[in-house]
Write a structure and sequence with these properties.
- By secondary structure, the protein is of the alpha+beta class.
- It has a single domain, classed as Gcn5-related N-acetyltransferase (GNAT) (Aminopeptidase, 3-Layer(aba) Sandwich).
- 36% of the residues lie in helices and 34% in strands.
- The protein contains five helices and seven strands.
- A seven-stranded mixed β-sheet has the order 1-2-3-4-5-7-6, with helices on both faces.
- Strand 6 and strand 7 form a beta hairpin.
- Helix 3 crosses helix 5.
- The longest helix is centred in the middle third of the chain and has 15 residues.
- It starts with a strand and ends with a helix.
Amino acid sequence: MNLRPATVDDLDAIMALERASFPTDAWSDAMMREELSSPHGYYLVAEEAGRLVGYAGLRAPKGGKDADIQTIAIAESARGRGRGRTILEALLAEASARGVREVFLEVRADNPVAQALYASEGFAEVGRRPRYYQPDDVDAVVMRLDVAGWAAARVADSDETGVCT
């Protein structure tokens, strides 16, 4: 899998995956175009064999101490093989490089796989937003990560194994 910065040229492929991944509450093309063009955003695409299999975005204004993971999507055919973790780790590394202290995200309450991924990286639930995801009336689980703690754990892991994970 190859990760690279997303550009507006990726919009059509991103939106195809967006609609497939989030059929009831997909972002509009205009919203995604704005995100890809924003100086506050950091968007990545994951490619395999020249095909987009994932994308993700972080909103982290320069000089800000907190950031938000805006979205992560992996094509259904590419799930379950660590691609989501790889792209999440890349976003968190960028947040750390930008001096961010805390990263927040919202995840659907009916998505235990994503919640488990986030928890395994150190995110903790800090609240809920009732009926946040519309039109499905699904709550959002709000999660927070201490970036310094995450980075320290990665260094500790690499010290034990000799490989930074």
